[in-house]
Design a protein that fits this description.
With 315 residues, the chain is mostly beta strands. The protein has helices at residues 3-14, 272-278, and strands at 17-18, 52-58, 62-69, 72-84, 91-107, 118-135, 143-156, 159-173, 182-189, 196-204, 211-221, 225-239, 246-262, 290-299, 304-314.
Length: 315
């Protein structure tokens, strides 16, 4: 990497501006992947095998804590968003979001109706957002928003097809608080011995909302070392300030890269490099069942980004 390239990347990591509010939380950075450790779709909770509790800090800035377990998830996070116009770079608003999310799910197989080859799951999550604006458009008020998300998924062999209704069911909100109602459709492939692939298509449910596409890939080696990558873009129709003509404007083009280490006991079949990374001291001690994850995210439209580190423990 050249010195000029390194300088640009470091500058991007230090910036926190965004052009879209659709940017995923860093604690759940890979929404397109069908089987992440902390699912963003509630229906996926029905197919978790283990629990994981994690805490995260990010440069954007963002702080978050999350606990995901079979059929249940609770998370709380706080992040600051400096929203800018993607064409002019003009600041539109600066706000701090505080979000509490509770999720649960149930699969047909848990009722004796499904199998390992075919299963159906449904999930729901309740979200409470407290939004505070430092700067905002005239007439915008700070306040609370409470909403519910609904999701459903079908698992056929190694393939998954899921749908989610996001931020569309208002269960009690203050006037003037921001919302982003949309419908998302996900298609993924999951196999423990192969990379997992996923695609997520989102469609707005109101005029002026954002639509987008995300593509993700992830691979785990010997349940010890993992790598993930995702690219996503969002668009929105906006009116020309002079002629009022509507144009399709790209709001964001984001790239996310992540890696993680799962510390575990050493196994006889482990190659030396896996044993040295994931099983120091033979996998004993306080590091056993601990996860360390690093994520970097860049918005190529804005030229900004951020980095995050999370530490978790399996249970």
């Amino acid at each position: 990497m050249s010195r000029a390239t390194a300088t640009v990347l470091l500058a991007a990591l230090a910036a926190g501006a965004a052009t879209s509010t659709r940017t995923p939380w860093s604690i759940q950075p890979f929404e397109a992947l069908p089987a992440p450790e902390h699912p963003s779709r509630a229906a996926d909770l029905a197919w978790l095998d283990d629990g994981l509790a994690s805490g995260l800090v990010a440069t954007t800035p963002e702080l978050a804590a999350i606990v995901s377990a079979p059929h249940f998830q609770v998370s709380y996070g706080q992040r600051t968003i400096d929203l800018e116009d993607p064409s002019s770079g003009k600041e539109l608003e600066s706000r701090t979001d505080r979000t509490l999310r509770l999720g649960t799910a149930l699969a047909a197989s848990q009722l004796g109706l499904g199998s390992d080859a075919f299963d159906v799951a449904v999930g729901a999550s309740f979200r409470r957002d407290k939004i505070g604006y430092d700067t905002a458009p005239a007439g915008t008020e700070r306040g609370n928003r409470q909403s519910a998300d609904l999701s459903a998924g079908v698992r056929l062999l190694s393939y998954r097809l899921e749908g989610e209704l996001v931020d569309a069911i208002d269960v009690g909100s203050d006037a003037g608080t921001a919302s982003d109602p949309h419908w998302a459709v996900d298609l993924g492939f999951v196999d423990p011995t192969l990379p997992q692939f996923g695609a997520r298509l989102s469609l707005p449910l109101r005029t002026g909302g954002e639509g987008g596409l995300q593509l993700g890939v992830g691979r785990s080696f010997r349940e010890a070392l993992s790598f993930s990558a995702e690219i996503g873009t969002t668009y929105r129709y906006e009116s020309d300030s002079l002629g009022g003509v509507r144009h399709l404007v790209r709001r964001s083009l984001e790239v996310a890269l992540g890696t993680g280490v799962r510390f575990r006991p050493a196994q006889p079949s482990d190659p030396a490099w896996i044993r040295n990374v994931a099983a120091p001291f033979g996998g004993a001690g306080i590091l056993r069942h601990v996860r360390l994850d690093l994520v970097g995210r860049w918005d190529l439209v804005r030229g900004s980004g951020g980095a995050a580190v999370s530490l978790g423990r399996e249970f």
